[in-house]
Specification:
Blueprint lengths: L1 E5 L9 H13 L5 E7 L13 E4 L4 H15 L5 E3 L11 E4 L4 H4 L6 H17 L2 E4 L2 H11 L6 E3 L6 H5 L11 E5 L8 H10 L6 E5 L17 E5 L3 H10 L2 E4 L8 H8 L4 E4 L2 H7 L4 E3 L4 H13 L8 H6 L2 H13 L6
Parallel strand pairs: 1-2, 1-4, 2-3, 4-5, 5-6, 6-7, 8-9, 8-11, 9-10, 11-12, 12-13
Helix pairs in contact: 1-13, 7-11
């Protein structure tokens, strides 16, 4: 059975969602699955995936490509199975599997640009109900898909996130000397709660430390106005090598997000031996209860106190092997491959 993969993610800035797609595709190439990446017109396939089977379809990009040109191509091919790794998919195409990473756009549309929230709130529930399978990355989001969108629980499968291949291959000296950096890796948007993080950092009396904010604003999110002291550094997007270096050098990783689907940066920080302080939200408790410290994302004073506490009394180094055994792209790809082998050619 030939399987097609929606490769619109190749046109997007790489964040956790796109990283998931990249890594699963890398592992699929080592299987016997006959698959082809379907690429929007004008997209240049990055070198890391250029050796994979791919085909340029249509002339457009974005939603027009995904909603019109992509399904038109597939229907001419007899409506084969399409796999979508990055939240969206063709609405008027039923022989497909979709991956939904979180439902923040349903819980808090005010965190996003109005047009983006409207499109997602219209498309995603309908696509999820029409799709043959729905994947997500955590038990927390699986429950939300069932409760909020009424997706049958037996239709939802979990494919966990993991550590990307460049980090796995990097020299990982967890005992390296730490610099006076506090690190967060985050898009600049309201749900990441950066203003509380910056205020807590300012009140934590850590004047000889720098707060390093890795990430940039994306047009899909609502406005985020931040008051920024001098010892807060916005780096913008970094290369994987630059980010790995920061993970290895930082004294603390912090995320005070209000809502997440998983928490890839926290996992990566832990892998690099960096202590982690996280907001006390369900998905972080699910994934990191035994290996992270937690604080309130709503209480600046509490977050400041907990930040200082973890800096002054770092926790015992985490034994990461069990965490990586649970959360890795190789096992997620194996699960996907097993499901594909069990799927009849005509669904």
């Amino acid at each position: 059975m030939k399987v097609y993969i929606n490769a619109r993610f190749l046109t997007q800035q790489i964040t956790g969602v796109q990283q998931f797609a990249f890594e699963i595709c890398r592992y699929l190439q080592c299987s016997d699955i006959d698959f082809v990446l379907l690429v929007p017109g004008g997209c240049v396939v990055p070198q890391a995936l250029s050796h994979l089977p791919h085909k340029v379809v249509g002339k457009n990009g974005g939603y027009i490509w995904e909603q019109v040109e992509l399904p038109s191509f597939l229907k001419k091919k007899g409506s084969p199975l399409l796999i979508n790794f990055c939240n969206t998919a063709p609405l008027l195409y039923s022989n497909q599997w979709i991956t939904i990473h979180d439902l923040a756009f349903m819980h808090h549309p005010e965190w996003f640009a109005k047009s983006f929230a409207r499109v997602y709130r219209f498309l995603i529930p309908r696509i999820a109900k029409r799709s043959k399978k729905v994947f997500t990355v955590s038990e927390t989001i699986k429950k939300q898909l069932h409760q909020l969108l009424n997706i049958p629980i037996q239709k939802i499968e979990i494919l966990h996130n993991g550590i990307h291949h460049e980090l796995l291959q990097a020299a990982n000296n967890v005992n390296a000397a730490r610099k006076k950096y506090i690190l967060t890796v985050s898009s600049i948007n309201p749900r990441k709660n950066l203003q509380t993080l910056i205020l807590a950092f300012s009140q934590a009396d850590l004047n000889d430390y720098e707060l390093m904010v890795v990430g940039a604003k994306n047009a899909v999110f609502g406005n985020t106005r931040l008051e920024v002291p001098k010892n807060v550094v916005f780096t913008g997007y970094l290369s994987n090598a630059e980010l790995i270096k920061l993970y290895q050098e930082s004294s603390l990783f912090v995320s005070l997000s209000y809502d997440e689907g998983f928490g890839i940066p926290a996992l990566e920080a832990l892998y690099c031996g960096c202590p982690v302080l996280l907001s006390d939200i369900p998905v972080y408790r699910e994934c990191f209860a035994e290996v992270a410290s937690f604080t309130s994302p709503f209480n600046v004073q509490q977050a400041a106190s907990d930040m200082r506490k973890v800096i002054e009394q770092p926790p015992v180094a985490v034994v990461i092997e069990q965490l990586i055994k649970t959360y890795n792209y190789a096992d997620s790809a194996k699960k996907l491959i097993k499901l594909l082998r069990e799927t009849p050619e005509k669904m």
